[in-house]
Protein backbone atom coordinates (compact mmCIF):
# COMPACT_ATOMS: atom_id res chain seq x y z
CA UNK A 1 0.00 0.00 0.00
CA UNK A 2 3.05 2.31 -0.20
CA UNK A 3 2.00 3.94 -3.45
CA UNK A 4 -1.52 4.55 -2.14
CA UNK A 5 -0.22 6.24 0.99
CA UNK A 6 2.21 8.35 -0.98
CA UNK A 7 -0.68 9.72 -3.00
CA UNK A 8 -1.38 11.89 0.02
CA UNK A 9 0.92 14.83 -0.64
CA UNK A 10 1.11 15.72 3.04
CA UNK A 11 3.32 12.66 3.57
CA UNK A 12 6.07 14.19 1.44
CA UNK A 13 6.92 10.97 -0.42
CA UNK A 14 9.72 11.01 -2.97
CA UNK A 15 9.47 9.99 -6.61
CA UNK A 16 11.21 6.70 -5.86
CA UNK A 17 8.54 5.76 -3.34
CA UNK A 18 5.88 5.89 -6.04
CA UNK A 19 6.99 2.48 -7.28
CA UNK A 20 5.92 1.97 -10.88
CA UNK A 21 5.04 5.60 -11.53
CA UNK A 22 7.14 7.27 -14.27
CA UNK A 23 10.15 9.28 -13.14
CA UNK A 24 9.56 13.02 -13.18
CA UNK A 25 11.11 15.01 -16.05
CA UNK A 26 11.01 18.75 -16.62
CA UNK A 27 7.53 20.00 -17.47
CA UNK A 28 8.62 21.59 -20.75
CA UNK A 29 9.70 18.29 -22.27
CA UNK A 30 7.28 16.34 -24.50
CA UNK A 31 6.57 12.71 -23.70
CA UNK A 32 5.06 11.32 -26.89
CA UNK A 33 3.00 8.14 -26.49
CA UNK A 34 2.37 6.33 -29.76
CA UNK A 35 -0.66 4.12 -30.41
CA UNK A 36 1.03 1.24 -32.26
CA UNK A 37 -2.01 -0.55 -33.67
CA UNK A 38 -2.01 -2.75 -36.78
CA UNK A 39 -1.67 0.28 -39.08
CA UNK A 40 1.69 0.95 -37.40
CA UNK A 41 3.03 -2.57 -37.98
CA UNK A 42 4.84 -1.49 -41.14
CA UNK A 43 7.23 0.52 -38.96
CA UNK A 44 7.86 -2.24 -36.40
CA UNK A 45 7.79 -5.32 -38.63
CA UNK A 46 11.50 -5.32 -39.47
CA UNK A 47 13.05 -1.94 -38.58
CA UNK A 48 16.76 -1.31 -39.11
CA UNK A 49 18.93 -0.47 -36.07
CA UNK A 50 18.72 3.20 -37.07
CA UNK A 51 14.91 3.04 -37.26
CA UNK A 52 14.76 1.31 -33.90
CA UNK A 53 16.91 4.05 -32.39
CA UNK A 54 14.66 6.72 -33.90
CA UNK A 55 11.58 5.19 -32.26
CA UNK A 56 13.37 4.89 -28.92
CA UNK A 57 14.25 8.58 -29.14
CA UNK A 58 10.87 9.91 -30.27
CA UNK A 59 8.46 7.63 -28.43
CA UNK A 60 8.42 7.89 -24.66
CA UNK A 61 5.93 5.01 -24.63
CA UNK A 62 4.07 2.90 -27.20
CA UNK A 63 0.70 1.21 -26.73
CA UNK A 64 1.30 -2.20 -28.27
CA UNK A 65 -0.37 -5.58 -28.62
CA UNK A 66 0.75 -9.03 -27.54
CA UNK A 67 1.78 -11.46 -28.96
CA UNK A 68 2.78 -9.41 -32.05
CA UNK A 69 5.08 -7.07 -30.13
CA UNK A 70 6.55 -9.70 -27.77
CA UNK A 71 9.77 -10.11 -29.76
CA UNK A 72 10.13 -6.36 -30.22
CA UNK A 73 10.51 -5.51 -26.54
CA UNK A 74 14.15 -6.51 -27.02
CA UNK A 75 14.80 -3.26 -28.88
CA UNK A 76 11.97 -1.11 -27.45
CA UNK A 77 11.61 -1.25 -23.67
CA UNK A 78 8.90 1.40 -23.23
CA UNK A 79 5.95 -0.64 -24.50
CA UNK A 80 2.60 -0.88 -22.75
CA UNK A 81 0.73 -4.11 -23.47
CA UNK A 82 -2.91 -3.46 -24.34
CA UNK A 83 -5.48 -5.29 -22.20
CA UNK A 84 -9.22 -4.70 -22.08
CA UNK A 85 -10.59 -4.84 -18.54
CA UNK A 86 -13.78 -6.69 -19.44
CA UNK A 87 -13.71 -7.84 -23.06
CA UNK A 88 -14.12 -11.46 -24.14
CA UNK A 89 -13.59 -11.73 -27.89
CA UNK A 90 -15.78 -14.06 -29.96
CA UNK A 91 -12.73 -15.77 -31.47
CA UNK A 92 -11.29 -16.52 -28.03
CA UNK A 93 -14.08 -18.23 -26.05
CA UNK A 94 -13.77 -18.52 -22.28
CA UNK A 95 -15.53 -20.58 -19.58
CA UNK A 96 -19.26 -20.04 -19.69
CA UNK A 97 -19.44 -18.62 -16.17
CA UNK A 98 -17.12 -15.73 -17.11
CA UNK A 99 -19.77 -14.03 -19.28
CA UNK A 100 -22.24 -11.45 -18.03
CA UNK A 101 -25.80 -12.45 -18.91
CA UNK A 102 -29.31 -11.04 -18.83
CA UNK A 103 -32.28 -12.46 -16.89
CA UNK A 104 -32.91 -14.98 -19.70
CA UNK A 105 -29.32 -16.23 -19.57
CA UNK A 106 -28.25 -14.60 -22.85
CA UNK A 107 -24.68 -13.34 -23.12
CA UNK A 108 -24.29 -9.58 -23.01
CA UNK A 109 -21.79 -7.28 -24.70
CA UNK A 110 -19.67 -4.21 -24.11
CA UNK A 111 -21.68 -1.31 -25.52
CA UNK A 112 -19.57 -0.67 -28.63
CA UNK A 113 -20.01 -1.29 -32.37
CA UNK A 114 -23.32 -3.13 -31.96
CA UNK A 115 -25.88 -4.04 -34.59
CA UNK A 116 -27.72 -6.92 -36.18
CA UNK A 117 -27.90 -8.82 -32.93
CA UNK A 118 -24.21 -8.78 -32.06
CA UNK A 119 -21.36 -6.54 -30.89
CA UNK A 120 -17.62 -6.94 -31.28
CA UNK A 121 -16.88 -7.87 -27.64
CA UNK A 122 -18.70 -9.93 -25.03
CA UNK A 123 -18.77 -8.50 -21.51
CA UNK A 124 -16.76 -10.44 -18.94
CA UNK A 125 -17.74 -10.67 -15.30
CA UNK A 126 -15.15 -8.46 -13.62
CA UNK A 127 -16.49 -9.52 -10.22
CA UNK A 128 -15.58 -13.16 -10.81
CA UNK A 129 -12.45 -14.31 -8.91
CA UNK A 130 -11.71 -16.83 -11.69
CA UNK A 131 -12.02 -14.19 -14.42
CA UNK A 132 -9.73 -11.82 -12.51
CA UNK A 133 -7.14 -14.49 -11.77
CA UNK A 134 -6.88 -15.54 -15.43
CA UNK A 135 -6.71 -11.93 -16.60
CA UNK A 136 -3.93 -11.11 -14.16
CA UNK A 137 -1.99 -14.28 -15.04
CA UNK A 138 -2.01 -13.26 -18.70
CA UNK A 139 -0.92 -9.73 -17.78
CA UNK A 140 1.94 -11.05 -15.64
CA UNK A 141 3.07 -13.04 -18.66
CA UNK A 142 3.27 -9.81 -20.67
CA UNK A 143 5.46 -8.12 -18.07
CA UNK A 144 7.77 -11.14 -18.06
CA UNK A 145 8.16 -10.73 -21.84
CA UNK A 146 9.67 -7.28 -21.38
CA UNK A 147 6.69 -4.93 -21.49
CA UNK A 148 7.10 -1.89 -19.28
CA UNK A 149 3.47 -1.83 -18.27
CA UNK A 150 -0.18 -2.36 -19.05
CA UNK A 151 -2.65 -0.17 -20.91
CA UNK A 152 -6.00 -1.21 -19.43
CA UNK A 153 -8.90 -0.17 -21.66
CA UNK A 154 -12.58 0.24 -20.74
CA UNK A 155 -11.98 0.92 -17.06
CA UNK A 156 -15.49 2.33 -17.08
CA UNK A 157 -16.98 3.25 -13.74
CA UNK A 158 -20.38 3.45 -15.43
CA UNK A 159 -22.09 0.17 -16.24
CA UNK A 160 -22.22 0.14 -20.04
CA UNK A 161 -23.44 -3.32 -20.99
CA UNK A 162 -25.82 -3.98 -23.88
CA UNK A 163 -27.55 -6.62 -25.92
CA UNK A 164 -26.47 -7.26 -29.50
CA UNK A 165 -28.54 -4.35 -30.80
CA UNK A 166 -26.96 -1.73 -28.56
CA UNK A 167 -29.78 -1.58 -26.03
CA UNK A 168 -28.46 -1.10 -22.52
CA UNK A 169 -29.03 -3.98 -20.14
CA UNK A 170 -28.53 -4.54 -16.42
CA UNK A 171 -26.79 -7.92 -16.19
CA UNK A 172 -27.71 -10.38 -13.49
CA UNK A 173 -25.08 -10.35 -10.74
CA UNK A 174 -23.97 -14.00 -10.35
CA UNK A 175 -23.18 -13.33 -6.70
CA UNK A 176 -26.63 -12.06 -5.76
CA UNK A 177 -28.99 -13.37 -8.44
CA UNK A 178 -30.36 -9.81 -8.82
CA UNK A 179 -29.72 -7.15 -11.46
CA UNK A 180 -26.29 -5.61 -11.02
CA UNK A 181 -26.52 -1.92 -10.09
CA UNK A 182 -24.04 0.88 -10.64
CA UNK A 183 -22.70 0.79 -7.09
CA UNK A 184 -21.89 -2.91 -7.37
CA UNK A 185 -20.29 -2.38 -10.76
CA UNK A 186 -18.05 0.41 -9.47
CA UNK A 187 -17.02 -1.69 -6.50
CA UNK A 188 -16.16 -4.67 -8.69
CA UNK A 189 -14.13 -2.51 -11.08
CA UNK A 190 -12.28 -0.71 -8.26
CA UNK A 191 -11.45 -3.99 -6.52
CA UNK A 192 -10.30 -5.54 -9.81
CA UNK A 193 -7.98 -2.61 -10.55
CA UNK A 194 -6.60 -2.73 -7.00
CA UNK A 195 -5.91 -6.44 -7.38
CA UNK A 196 -4.00 -5.82 -10.62
CA UNK A 197 -1.94 -3.14 -8.91
CA UNK A 198 -1.27 -5.35 -5.90
CA UNK A 199 -0.28 -8.46 -7.87
CA UNK A 200 1.81 -6.71 -10.55
CA UNK A 201 3.53 -4.00 -8.47
CA UNK A 202 6.40 -3.35 -10.90
CA UNK A 203 4.23 -2.63 -13.94
CA UNK A 204 3.47 0.90 -15.08
CA UNK A 205 -0.33 0.89 -15.29
CA UNK A 206 -2.51 3.12 -17.47
CA UNK A 207 -6.31 3.24 -17.09
CA UNK A 208 -8.51 4.39 -19.97
CA UNK A 209 -11.56 5.61 -18.06
CA UNK A 210 -14.31 8.20 -18.49
CA UNK A 211 -12.78 11.41 -17.18
CA UNK A 212 -16.11 13.25 -16.95
CA UNK A 213 -17.21 10.85 -14.20
CA UNK A 214 -15.02 13.08 -12.01
CA UNK A 215 -13.41 11.84 -8.82
CA UNK A 216 -15.95 12.48 -6.07
CA UNK A 217 -17.11 8.86 -5.85
CA UNK A 218 -14.99 6.80 -3.40
CA UNK A 219 -14.83 3.86 -5.81
CA UNK A 220 -13.52 6.13 -8.58
CA UNK A 221 -10.90 7.44 -6.17
CA UNK A 222 -9.83 3.85 -5.48
CA UNK A 223 -9.67 3.17 -9.23
CA UNK A 224 -7.48 6.26 -9.77
CA UNK A 225 -5.20 5.23 -6.92
CA UNK A 226 -4.61 1.86 -8.60
CA UNK A 227 -3.19 3.51 -11.75
CA UNK A 228 0.01 5.38 -12.54
CA UNK A 229 -1.47 7.27 -15.49
CA UNK A 230 -5.00 8.06 -16.63
CA UNK A 231 -5.73 8.11 -20.37
CA UNK A 232 -7.76 11.16 -21.52
CA UNK A 233 -9.19 10.15 -24.89
CA UNK A 234 -9.03 13.03 -27.41
CA UNK A 235 -7.12 15.16 -24.87
CA UNK A 236 -8.15 18.78 -25.08
CA UNK A 237 -8.81 18.24 -28.79
CA UNK A 238 -12.14 16.65 -27.91
CA UNK A 239 -14.66 18.77 -29.82
CA UNK A 240 -17.24 18.06 -27.12
CA UNK A 241 -15.32 20.13 -24.54
CA UNK A 242 -17.04 23.42 -23.78
CA UNK A 243 -16.06 26.75 -22.31
CA UNK A 244 -17.01 27.92 -18.85
CA UNK A 245 -17.05 25.67 -15.79
CA UNK A 246 -19.64 23.02 -16.70
CA UNK A 247 -19.40 19.25 -16.31
CA UNK A 248 -17.80 18.79 -19.74
CA UNK A 249 -15.84 22.03 -19.89
CA UNK A 250 -12.13 22.31 -20.62
CA UNK A 251 -11.55 24.02 -17.28
CA UNK A 252 -13.28 21.17 -15.42
CA UNK A 253 -10.94 18.71 -17.15
CA UNK A 254 -7.88 20.80 -16.23
CA UNK A 255 -8.95 20.90 -12.59
CA UNK A 256 -9.41 17.13 -12.52
CA UNK A 257 -5.89 16.74 -13.91
CA UNK A 258 -4.60 19.02 -11.15
CA UNK A 259 -6.17 16.73 -8.54
CA UNK A 260 -4.67 13.65 -10.21
CA UNK A 261 -1.26 15.34 -10.15
CA UNK A 262 -1.68 16.04 -6.45
CA UNK A 263 -2.04 12.28 -5.96
CA UNK A 264 1.15 11.56 -7.92
CA UNK A 265 -0.64 10.47 -11.10
CA UNK A 266 0.16 11.39 -14.67
CA UNK A 267 -2.24 11.73 -17.60
CA UNK A 268 -2.01 10.77 -21.27
CA UNK A 269 -3.57 13.41 -23.54
CA UNK A 270 -4.30 11.15 -26.51
CA UNK A 271 -5.72 12.92 -29.55
CA UNK A 272 -6.59 12.68 -33.20
CA UNK A 273 -5.65 16.11 -34.54
CA UNK A 274 -5.27 16.13 -38.34
CA UNK A 275 -4.58 19.85 -38.90
CA UNK A 276 -1.65 22.04 -37.92
CA UNK A 277 -3.83 24.37 -35.85
CA UNK A 278 -5.34 21.44 -33.94
CA UNK A 279 -1.90 20.03 -33.22
CA UNK A 280 -0.66 23.36 -31.88
CA UNK A 281 -3.78 23.60 -29.71
CA UNK A 282 -3.19 20.11 -28.31
CA UNK A 283 0.47 20.91 -27.71
CA UNK A 284 -0.45 24.09 -25.83
CA UNK A 285 -2.90 22.13 -23.68
CA UNK A 286 -0.23 19.55 -22.86
CA UNK A 287 2.22 22.21 -21.72
CA UNK A 288 -0.47 23.88 -19.60
CA UNK A 289 -0.83 20.73 -17.49
CA UNK A 290 2.54 18.98 -17.81
CA UNK A 291 4.18 18.08 -14.51
CA UNK A 292 6.91 15.85 -15.94
CA UNK A 293 5.05 12.53 -15.67
CA UNK A 294 2.42 13.23 -18.33
CA UNK A 295 2.30 12.23 -21.99
CA UNK A 296 0.59 13.21 -25.19
CA UNK A 297 -0.15 11.37 -28.39
CA UNK A 298 -1.65 12.01 -31.78
CA UNK A 299 -2.80 9.57 -34.40
CA UNK A 300 -1.75 11.85 -37.27
CA UNK A 301 1.71 13.40 -37.75
CA UNK A 302 3.24 11.02 -35.24
CA UNK A 303 4.80 8.27 -37.37
CA UNK A 304 8.32 8.01 -38.82
CA UNK A 305 6.83 9.02 -42.18
CA UNK A 306 4.99 12.19 -41.10
CA UNK A 307 6.62 13.23 -37.82
CA UNK A 308 5.68 16.81 -36.90
CA UNK A 309 8.65 18.86 -35.71
CA UNK A 310 6.43 20.56 -33.13
CA UNK A 311 6.65 17.39 -31.05
CA UNK A 312 10.39 18.05 -30.62
CA UNK A 313 9.70 21.33 -28.78
CA UNK A 314 11.52 21.71 -25.47
CA UNK A 315 10.37 24.62 -23.30
CA UNK A 316 12.71 23.79 -20.43
CA UNK A 317 11.53 24.16 -16.84
CA UNK A 318 8.15 25.55 -15.87
CA UNK A 319 8.32 28.88 -14.04
CA UNK A 320 5.03 28.20 -12.28
CA UNK A 321 1.49 26.98 -12.79
CA UNK A 322 -0.86 28.14 -15.53
CA UNK A 323 -2.77 31.37 -14.94
CA UNK A 324 -5.51 33.43 -16.56
CA UNK A 325 -4.85 36.71 -18.32
CA UNK A 326 -7.47 39.46 -17.85
CA UNK A 327 -8.99 38.60 -21.23
CA UNK A 328 -9.53 34.95 -20.22
CA UNK A 329 -6.65 33.45 -22.22
CA UNK A 330 -4.75 30.83 -20.20
CA UNK A 331 -0.97 31.24 -20.05
CA UNK A 332 1.97 29.32 -18.63
CA UNK A 333 5.60 30.41 -18.69
CA UNK A 334 8.76 28.33 -19.06
CA UNK A 335 12.47 29.09 -19.06
CA UNK A 336 12.56 28.74 -22.85
CA UNK A 337 9.15 30.04 -23.85
CA UNK A 338 5.48 30.42 -23.09
CA UNK A 339 2.14 28.89 -24.11
CA UNK A 340 -1.26 30.52 -24.60
CA UNK A 341 -4.68 28.94 -24.97
CA UNK A 342 -8.10 30.43 -25.65
CA UNK A 343 -10.88 28.13 -24.43
CA UNK A 344 -13.91 27.11 -26.53
CA UNK A 345 -17.08 29.24 -26.57
CA UNK A 346 -15.27 32.53 -26.01
CA UNK A 347 -14.38 35.45 -28.29
CA UNK A 348 -11.22 36.00 -30.34
CA UNK A 349 -8.44 37.55 -28.26
CA UNK A 350 -5.11 39.14 -29.15
CA UNK A 351 -2.17 38.88 -26.74
CA UNK A 352 0.87 41.16 -27.10
CA UNK A 353 4.14 39.45 -26.22
CA UNK A 354 6.87 41.92 -26.94
CA UNK A 355 10.00 41.11 -28.91
CA UNK A 356 12.00 37.90 -28.70
CA UNK A 357 9.49 35.13 -29.49
CA UNK A 358 9.00 32.69 -32.36
CA UNK A 359 6.32 30.06 -32.90
CA UNK A 360 6.89 26.33 -33.48
CA UNK A 361 7.30 27.01 -37.22
CA UNK A 362 10.14 29.45 -36.56
CA UNK A 363 8.12 32.59 -37.37
CA UNK A 364 8.92 35.56 -35.12
CA UNK A 365 5.90 36.78 -33.16
CA UNK A 366 5.36 39.89 -31.07
CA UNK A 367 1.65 39.16 -30.68
CA UNK A 368 -0.81 36.38 -31.46
CA UNK A 369 -4.54 36.43 -32.10
CA UNK A 370 -6.38 33.37 -30.83
CA UNK A 371 -9.81 32.30 -32.01
CA UNK A 372 -11.91 30.26 -29.54
CA UNK A 373 -10.47 26.79 -29.09
CA UNK A 374 -6.97 27.60 -30.39
CA UNK A 375 -3.56 27.92 -28.81
CA UNK A 376 0.01 29.06 -29.37
CA UNK A 377 3.36 27.62 -28.32
CA UNK A 378 6.13 30.22 -28.41
CA UNK A 379 9.87 29.88 -27.82
CA UNK A 380 12.12 32.71 -26.72
CA UNK A 381 14.79 33.55 -29.24
CA UNK A 382 17.16 34.23 -26.31
CA UNK A 383 17.06 31.52 -23.64
CA UNK A 384 18.66 33.85 -21.09
CA UNK A 385 15.93 36.47 -21.48
CA UNK A 386 13.44 36.66 -18.58
CA UNK A 387 9.73 36.17 -19.26
CA UNK A 388 8.19 39.24 -20.82
CA UNK A 389 4.96 40.41 -19.09
CA UNK A 390 1.99 40.36 -21.43
CA UNK A 391 -0.66 43.00 -21.81
CA UNK A 392 -4.03 41.87 -23.17
CA UNK A 393 -5.05 43.76 -26.27
CA UNK A 394 -8.28 43.83 -28.31
CA UNK A 395 -8.20 41.99 -31.65
CA UNK A 396 -6.20 43.90 -34.24
CA UNK A 397 -6.41 43.23 -37.97
CA UNK A 398 -2.70 43.93 -38.41
CA UNK A 399 -1.61 41.06 -36.18
CA UNK A 400 -0.92 37.53 -37.39
CA UNK A 401 -3.90 35.31 -36.68
CA UNK A 402 -3.78 31.68 -35.65
CA UNK A 403 -6.63 30.04 -37.51
CA UNK A 404 -9.27 27.92 -35.85
CA UNK A 405 -9.12 24.16 -36.52
CA UNK A 406 -10.89 22.96 -39.63
CA UNK A 407 -12.99 20.64 -37.46
CA UNK A 408 -14.51 23.21 -35.06
CA UNK A 409 -15.94 22.45 -31.68
CA UNK A 410 -19.49 21.18 -31.87
CA UNK A 411 -22.36 23.31 -30.54
CA UNK A 412 -23.30 22.90 -26.92
CA UNK A 413 -24.39 19.27 -26.52
CA UNK A 414 -28.09 18.65 -26.11
CA UNK A 415 -27.30 16.46 -23.13
CA UNK A 416 -24.44 16.16 -20.68
CA UNK A 417 -22.67 12.81 -20.23
CA UNK A 418 -24.91 10.08 -18.90
CA UNK A 419 -25.49 10.42 -15.17
CA UNK A 420 -25.38 7.37 -12.98
CA UNK A 421 -28.68 5.61 -13.71
CA UNK A 422 -30.98 4.38 -10.96
CA UNK A 423 -30.95 0.58 -10.71
CA UNK A 424 -34.11 -0.81 -12.32
CA UNK A 425 -36.60 -3.32 -11.09
CA UNK A 426 -35.54 -6.89 -11.92
CA UNK A 427 -37.96 -7.10 -14.85
CA UNK A 428 -36.89 -3.84 -16.48
CA UNK A 429 -34.11 -2.91 -18.87
CA UNK A 430 -32.12 0.33 -18.43
CA UNK A 431 -32.64 3.29 -20.69
CA UNK A 432 -30.16 6.11 -21.06
CA UNK A 433 -28.85 8.63 -23.54
CA UNK A 434 -25.27 7.53 -24.00
CA UNK A 435 -22.41 9.75 -25.09
CA UNK A 436 -19.14 8.32 -26.32
CA UNK A 437 -15.89 8.22 -24.39
CA UNK A 438 -15.29 11.81 -25.34
CA UNK A 439 -15.86 14.54 -22.83
CA UNK A 440 -19.55 14.64 -23.48
CA UNK A 441 -19.09 14.78 -27.23
CA UNK A 442 -20.74 11.68 -28.68
CA UNK A 443 -23.51 12.11 -31.23
CA UNK A 444 -25.87 15.08 -31.35
CA UNK A 445 -28.88 15.62 -33.59
CA UNK A 446 -31.33 18.40 -34.35
CA UNK A 447 -34.40 18.77 -36.58
CA UNK A 448 -35.53 21.59 -38.84
CA UNK A 449 -38.69 21.55 -40.91
CA UNK A 450 -38.47 21.79 -44.69
CA UNK A 451 -42.17 21.71 -45.55
CA UNK A 452 -45.25 19.66 -44.68
CA UNK A 453 -44.12 16.10 -44.17
CA UNK A 454 -40.45 16.81 -44.99
CA UNK A 455 -37.96 17.39 -42.18
CA UNK A 456 -34.20 17.86 -42.16
CA UNK A 457 -32.25 15.93 -39.54
CA UNK A 458 -28.72 17.17 -38.94
CA UNK A 459 -26.06 16.74 -36.29
CA UNK A 460 -22.49 15.84 -35.54
CA UNK A 461 -20.41 12.96 -34.15
CA UNK A 462 -17.59 14.26 -31.98
CA UNK A 463 -14.19 13.05 -33.15
CA UNK A 464 -15.47 11.21 -36.23
CA UNK A 465 -14.03 11.91 -39.68
CA UNK A 466 -15.77 9.18 -41.67
CA UNK A 467 -18.51 6.56 -41.50
CA UNK A 468 -22.28 6.76 -41.23
CA UNK A 469 -24.92 7.34 -38.61
CA UNK A 470 -28.08 5.29 -38.46
CA UNK A 471 -31.21 7.43 -38.10
CA UNK A 472 -33.94 5.50 -36.31
CA UNK A 473 -37.38 7.08 -36.85
CA UNK A 474 -40.22 6.13 -34.52
CA UNK A 475 -43.90 7.05 -34.74
CA UNK A 476 -46.28 7.30 -31.82
CA UNK A 477 -49.21 4.92 -32.27
CA UNK A 478 -51.79 4.19 -29.55
CA UNK A 479 -49.59 5.93 -27.01
CA UNK A 480 -46.48 3.85 -27.81
CA UNK A 481 -43.39 4.56 -29.89
CA UNK A 482 -42.83 2.13 -32.77
CA UNK A 483 -39.86 2.10 -35.15
CA UNK A 484 -41.14 2.76 -38.66
CA UNK A 485 -37.99 3.48 -40.59
CA UNK A 486 -34.19 3.32 -40.41
CA UNK A 487 -31.96 5.23 -42.82
CA UNK A 488 -28.22 5.90 -43.04
CA UNK A 489 -26.64 9.35 -43.26
CA UNK A 490 -22.97 9.66 -44.30
CA UNK A 491 -20.57 11.73 -42.20
CA UNK A 492 -18.48 14.57 -43.57
CA UNK A 493 -14.84 15.02 -42.57
CA UNK A 494 -15.83 17.36 -39.74
CA UNK A 495 -18.17 14.73 -38.31
CA UNK A 496 -21.38 16.45 -39.42
CA UNK A 497 -24.31 14.82 -41.16
CA UNK A 498 -27.63 15.89 -42.65
CA UNK A 499 -30.57 14.01 -44.13
CA UNK A 500 -33.94 15.21 -45.42
CA UNK A 501 -36.78 12.74 -44.93
CA UNK A 502 -40.46 12.47 -45.70
CA UNK A 503 -42.57 11.14 -42.83
CA UNK A 504 -46.16 10.06 -42.56
CA UNK A 505 -48.52 12.46 -40.80
CA UNK A 506 -48.36 12.25 -37.01
CA UNK A 507 -45.95 12.56 -34.09
CA UNK A 508 -42.45 11.18 -34.55
CA UNK A 509 -39.08 11.06 -32.87
CA UNK A 510 -35.62 10.30 -34.24
CA UNK A 511 -32.36 9.12 -32.75
CA UNK A 512 -28.94 9.17 -34.43
CA UNK A 513 -26.75 6.14 -33.70
CA UNK A 514 -23.06 5.84 -34.52
CA UNK A 515 -21.32 2.44 -34.46
CA UNK A 516 -17.80 3.80 -33.88
CA UNK A 517 -14.52 4.07 -35.81
CA UNK A 518 -10.83 4.34 -34.97
CA UNK A 519 -11.23 8.05 -34.23
CA UNK A 520 -14.55 8.05 -32.38
CA UNK A 521 -16.26 5.71 -29.95
CA UNK A 522 -19.75 4.40 -30.54
CA UNK A 523 -22.44 6.83 -29.36
CA UNK A 524 -26.02 7.85 -29.85
CA UNK A 525 -27.97 11.09 -29.58
CA UNK A 526 -30.96 11.78 -27.41
CA UNK A 527 -34.36 11.43 -29.11
CA UNK A 528 -35.61 14.52 -30.95
CA UNK A 529 -39.36 14.78 -31.55
CA UNK A 530 -41.23 16.31 -34.48
CA UNK A 531 -44.67 16.22 -36.05
CA UNK A 532 -45.40 15.72 -39.74
CA UNK A 533 -48.37 17.60 -41.19
CA UNK A 534 -50.82 16.10 -43.65
CA UNK A 535 -49.84 18.45 -46.44
Explain the overall architecture:
This protein has 535 residues and is of the alpha/beta class. It has a domain at 443-532: Sandwich (Immunoglobulin-like), CATH 2.60.40. The protein is 16% helix and 28% strand. The chain has eight helices and 28 strands. The protein has helices spanning 2-6, 41-44, 49-58, 129-144, 182-199, 218-225, 250-262, 276-289, and strands at residues 33-35, 61-64, 79-84, 87-88, 109-110, 122-123, 149-153, 161-162, 204-208, 229-233, 266-271, 295-298, 323-324, 330-334, 337-342, 349-359, 364-370, 374-380, 391-393, 401-402, 443-451, 454-461, 468-477, 480-490, 496-502, 506-514, 523-524, 528-532. It has an eight-stranded parallel sheet with strand order 1-2-3-7-9-10-11-12. Strands 13, 14, 15, 16, 17, 18, 19 and 20 form an eight-stranded mixed sheet that branches. A hairpin with an 8-residue loop joins β26 (506-514) and β27 (523-524). α5 runs parallel beside α6 (218-225). The radius of gyration is 24 Å and the shape is globular. The relative contact order is 0.10. The model is unreliable at 1-19 and 389-441 (pLDDT under 50).
